[in-house]
Amino acid sequence: MIDLAIIAAAGVLTWGLRASFIVFAGDRPLPPAAEGVLRYARPAVLAALVASVTIGSGGLALSTTVLTRVAAAGAAGVTAWQWRNLALTLAAGFAALWSAQLAIHLLQ
Amino acid sequence: MAVANPATIPAAAPAAAAGRLDGLHLDAMRAASVEVLPVILGIIPFGLAIGVAVADSTVSDGAGWAGSFLIFAGSAHLAAVTLLGAGASVATILLTVFTINARLLVYSASLGPTFRQQPRWFRWAAPYFLVDQLFAMTWTRVEQGAAGAWLRQYYLAAGLLIGLAWLPAIGAGVLVGPVVPGSWQLSFATSALLTGLLVPALVNRPAWIAALTGASIAVALIGLPNGLNLVAGAVAGTIAGIVAERSLR
Q1: CB B43 within 8 A of CB B169
Q2: CB-CB: which of B64, B115, B237 is closest to A48?
């Protein structure tokens, strides 16, 4: 129940951002001071998320599992850079992850 | 994207204009349906992967899937589910959603002047559908002079079609996720997806600096409770980006 309430709150917040100028502020332009924040907040928070999700709660005590995930995320990043396609990015990431796992399995 | 000649868009056409039936602009809906197709093909794998992330997290399947229509924004939905599953505080989750979705302010500000001429019910309903791809489609049309009922029906038709693909795609991911064997490591989908969302945001050198700072701080502080390492990374990264922009100018 609490999960649903938090998701709903995130939804209301998102609608508020979308409605901000369309419903409430009308013709007023975006304040220039806000532009810098808007430009760099997204890469900052997405990178922070990618790094913590990929490395996991173990932090920098790196294991083989973590290293393969980091390498696979790198492969996904290169693919995203080259082709800007989310499906292809997913495919490349998993292809890299599974081949790394297979290689480790065969070497052991 | 197939874009009709601006002259063919009946922005202020009389009621008897071709393709119009009792106030319905069938040509607007037809244009929306055609142009939204590549968008839908692109969001289906994204939706599936978010569904897999929901199934993989400790968040209940129902609440996780409900984000598809309650939030209706993939990257923020994925972040909310990931953080909720990791035990982050409500404040961290909402701050992250706000930061990821802050670009929607730009879309809202861009469409504000045009949508001001629309009826009140539309101005309250339209923001719900405002995702990146719909903004791009609509902005192209607005710059070509589309307005009034034509624009309204174009926007709503495309938005509804995106929703019709989005909700079942995430639902399918939630159902498929648990069936797949654990050795496939489907939880990696979150990493790969977030990477795919991050890369297009790296538009210049300050953006790279923002991202590298955000990632380093988040990793260095990974032991902090409530996802505070993310908040610290986001704040430090944003400041680093702004400072870099000023000093590189």
Answers
A1: yes
A2: B237
> Between helices B132-143 and B103-115, what is the axis angle to 10°?
40
Mean pLDDT check: name the lowest of B12-21, B151-160, B172-181, B236-245.
B12-21
Looking at the predicted structure, is the pLDDT value of residue B146 above 70? Answer: yes
Flag whether A10 is in a domain: yes
A54: closest chain B residue by CA: B191
- Residue to substitute from A4, A12, A17, interface B, most B β-carbons within 10 A: A17
Residue A81 contacts B, CB cutoff 8 Å: yes
Q: pTM for this structure?
A: 0.84
Structural domain that includes position A63: 42-107
State the virtual CA torsion across B79, A3, B73, B173 in degrees, nearest 10: 80
> Which pLDDT band holds residue B14 (cuts at 50, 70, 90)?
very low
Co-location of A55 and A8 in the same domain: no
Q: What is the pLDDT of residue B12?
A: 46
The predicted structure's pLDDT at residue B4: 46
